[in-house]
Design goal:
By secondary structure, the chain is of the alpha/beta class. The protein contains 20 helices and ten strands.
């Protein structure tokens, strides 16, 4: 049985995501099982997901995925390298995933693999770029371009960059998963216009933030839009960071440079810059705008500040300590039965069972519960902002009805 992993955020699940799953099955066979490693309530751009994780996972299995697992929180609030490392480690831990499919603007797997290989051998050029004040992505692109301009050009696109990081993670682990690059269709990353009826997720989030749900409908699979519409009606979507802007800032005002440093990736001056911005600005968004520079990109600034709010220091590994199931699709039950003989980590289906897991896992589980409780503060309906929801939710299970 072919089992293909997909790394995703589905924030929200749109027509482009459905295309990727369909194209993956077209290449690997219609009976291939799709297992998604999906970001939870916090996403890699340094933000809160527009809809909570169980609802987004439900949309995914209603639209073709067979099993949705939660990517570790520490990976979700990491750089592209850490994000890829955590998600690939999660899929590898299942022991039964044969392929890894990802979208790329240029789905030339040989060229992507060349770029991944070159990126591993450019440590000195990368160091020099970082010392010159370049952000990591730009420094890496410059280093790879010096060795191979065609390979370096791939790193100009965020989706290509993630694909290259997946390939690097596969190689670093010696994984047996075979990579599959699928050409990305539709609106470009962060594009404000759809292309060929396929939007970017950021375009949809912008519409939802402005209350324009109707424009989203034709750009999302019917089943995914139905989940979104239900969550809106029950006051659980769209979730926006603005709802907790002051709550985050109130916490950050308690932190000095020394307290901020564990949440930064190294002592490169960011903690000092953040401390000044936190003191001198009236909102989380204003802090981010003041701290952002070419060296400290906006997404990195947001991730560091959210890590500080969630008490998630950089010392925590992005790799999983357990496997959390968020939704089960048509082949999902069979996959879970199969995984019993192959998985390398404990599997959590019902969160209420977490308390019986080994003591060594409890700190990570407590961080997950806290993150979910803080996320709940951003729900549109005040009555939904209560804590404890982490233990009351269970995976969505798709039936044939």
């Amino acid at each position: 049985m072919t089992v293909c992993g997909v790394v995703a955020e589905y924030n929200p699940f749109h027509a482009g995501h459905a295309h990727h799953i369909a194209e993956t099955r077209r290449v690997l066979g219609g009976d291939s099982a799709i297992v998604c490693a999906m970001s939870g309530n916090f996403v890699q751009r340094g933000d809160l997901a527009v809809m909570e994780k169980y609802a987004r996972a439900e949309a995914a299995v209603r639209c073709g995925a067979d099993l949705v697992l939660e990517t570790p929180l520490a990976a979700c609030l990491s750089s592209a390298e850490g994000f890829a490392r955590g998600a690939v480690s999660l899929l590898d831990a299942l022991g039964c995933v044969t392929h890894l499919s990802f979208g790329a603007e240029q789905a030339d797997l040989a060229l992507l693999q060349r770029a991944a290989g070159l990126s591993r051998g450019q440590s000195e050029a990368l160091r020099q770029g970082l010392a010159a004040g370049l952000p990591y992505a730009a420094a890496m692109q410059q280093a790879v371009s010096a060795a191979d301009p065609a390979a370096g050009a791939l790193l100009a696109s965020p989706n290509n960059t993630l694909g290259i990081e997946y390939l690097r993670a596969l190689a670093a682990r010696g994984s047996r998963m075979q990579p599959l690059a699928v050409e990305r269709k539709g609106g470009a990353h962060d594009s404000d216009t759809p292309a060929d009826g396929l939007p970017s997720a950021s375009y949809l989030r912008g519409l939802l933030a402005g209350g324009d749900t109707g424009t989203c409908r034709p750009l999302m699979p019917e089943a995914s839009f139905a989940v979104l519409e239900r969550e809106i009606q029950r006051g659980a979507a769209p979730v926006t960071r603005s709802a907790v802007d002051q709550a985050i800032l109130a916490h950050l005002r308690r932190l000095d440079v020394a307290a901020l440093l564990p949440f930064c990736s190294g002592d490169d001056g960011l903690a000092h810059r953040l401390a000044d911005a936190i003191r001198d600005n009236p909102s989380f968004s204003a802090v981010c705008a003041a701290a952002q520079t070419r060296r400290y990109p906006l997404a990195r600034v947001r991730r560091v500040l959210l890590r500080a709010w969630l008490d998630l220091p950089q010392s925590i590994s992005p790799e999983p300590e357990y496997i959390r199931v968020l939704a089960i699709g048509r082949q999902g039950r069979a996959l879970l039965r199969r995984m019993k003989d192959t998985y390398a980590l404990p599997v959590i289906i019902k969160p209420v069972a977490e308390r019986s897991l080994p003591e060594g896992l409890q700190p990570a589980l407590a961080r997950d519960a806290l993150a979910d409780d803080l996320y709940a503060l951003a729900y549109p309906a005040p009555e939904r902002r209560v804590g404890g929801g982490h233990f009351r939710k269970t995976p969505f299970c798709l039936t044939d009805d």
